[in-house]
Amino acid sequence: MPKRTIWLAAGVVVLAGTGVTAVSVTGGSGGSGADEASRPAQAHTLSLDGKDPKKRELPRTDTQLFSLVGVSWEDGADDFEGTAQIRTRGAESGTWTDWRDLDFGIRAPETEEGDASRVRGASEPLWVGPSDAVEARVVAGGKETAVPDALRLDMIDPGDEKGGKGQGKGGGNGGNGKGNGKGKPSTEPGTGESATATATAGATPSGEDTAPTTAPEEPAEPPQEPTEAPATEQPAPSDAPATSEEPAQEPTATEPDAPAPSEEPTTEPALPGEEPTAPAPSDAPTQEPTEDPATPAPSEEPATEPTPAPTAEPTTEPSTGPDPSGSTSPAAPAAPAIVSRADWGADESLVVDPPSYLDTVDAVFVHHTAGTNDYDCADSAAIVRGILTYHVETNGWSDIGYNFFVDKCGTVFEGRAGGVDKPVRGAHTYGFNGYSAGVSLLGDYENGGTPTAAAKKAIADLSAWKLGLHGVDPEAQVTLTAAGDTGVYDTGEQATLNTISGHRDGYATLCPGAALYSALPEIRGAAGASVYGSRPEK
Q1: Nearest to 391 by CA among 124, 207, 136
Q2: Fewest CB atoms within 10 Å of the CB: 14, 100, 254, 392?
Q3: pLDDT value at position 144?
């Protein structure tokens, strides 16, 4: 079989005879830690033109490299009814997949973000792995008499974690102290502690590794190992100094001054003769997220953060700010392990606007990403990068829609920028984004997929912690007012929902899939018993 060429375009390229437009979506950034081998995320689009108003077909067509695919159309308010199917050719194997259905049900946010001129209607994205050719067919159905205008195929190459480290226009913090781990999830001192320090639940920055962790030296939690991909970013903050300065005469002089610069990998070899600096390795994990051991400081000084995002955080402070000084409650839990945006390789240059904040988080909505369960957890970071690119470049949103992601191995990823411990307004549950956080499980749980025990536990612990920051019982119910017509509730209608609900409880969709939805009672019970929860006294 002849070897195929894989195109990696920079800028805009139109492939002759195919109509494929490749757009480099990364803003790039010198000093971002990216090296020559890194590959930025890219969005490739292919117009689906045709004379039949009810149907569009694309024969097998060679394309640039992509790993995630969906279809989109011009009018973001047009909820397409019909079917869209694709099949792809593996870039390495050269074999074609069977036909796969694309799921619908995405709805733009019920805010100015959703009214922006750039917003398009779109299917859910489907992860297909590295592919270099595609075939597609879209057919209008139900009440639809024609396919939407400006219909196109959107193909996303997520690049690698080193290719997306630029500062965003909207102040995406790239994990700037907003995740709580290194490349591998960890609850060591860091933003996990900072997050709990600013919580109304009064969480104590203990730095205890009570959450499942997968630090490189800890084989304890196999499910977390898939986050090795983000771990490769650790050299980014200070690649060169790490090993070159270690044998030098300055370890003792530099370590006390700057445990941050990723001395973590070098201090262990250097420690044998440097006992006074032994504490440095334990502090190092806190430095990558830029959180100092003095946890209250980050939450009290949002304006000093280097990016615009934290400057908007004061809107959250009424509910979280007054408590850092009182966050010494011995019973307060640490945050669960969360892979930061920096560690999964978010390209912050994609972020359009600064995050906005809610007064409080009253509920958590559970979602699934649909697509496929046939992914390796080592690919989870790439999937999240692909979804970020799709939500911004295809949907036209300001940032990734979900507040958190969980993969089938139980690894939790930070979603929308703004602070994992803050009530960041997401774009996940139309009509109820103004009250809630959204967590999405990677995979399809409607068509045979079954959520793993690790995934259910991660969702339970994360939900317990997030709700606990606002004094909300994860096993209770709450009454919320629908901010839009959701297909389940009319605008202004009162909805009584579980504080941990499925997407379908608030919006007319199959999400989070029958299997995951049926597991929600179990997840609520586990959240109620979670060590990460902090329920209000009754």
Answers
A1: 124
A2: 14
A3: 72
Sequence-distant (≥ 6) Cβ neighbours of residue 22 within 8 angstroms: 7, 9, 12, 13, 14, 15, 42, 43, 44, 64
520-529 vs 453-468: helix crossing angle, rounded to 10: 60
> What is the model's pLDDT at position 143?
75
Token duo for residue 136: 């597609």
Residues of the chain with confidence (pLDDT) below 70 = 1-37, 162-333, 535-538
Fold of 12-157: Jelly Rolls (2.60.120)
Is residue 198 within 8 Å of residue 324, measured between CB atoms?
Answer: yes
CA 244 from centre of chain: 34
Compute the CA torsion angle 494, 523, 507, 431 (nearest 10 deg): 60
Q: Give me 174's structure tokens.
A: 């790239």
Global pTM reads 0.67
Q: Measured between alpha carbons, how far is 505 from 509 in angstroms, rounded to an integer?
A: 9
Residue 27 CB-density burial (10 A; 0-12 exposed, 13-18 middle, 19+ buried): middle
Parts of the chain belonging to CATH 2.60.120: 12-157
Give the model confidence (pLDDT) of 271-299 as tens digits.
Answer: 333 444 434 444 433 333 333 333 343 33
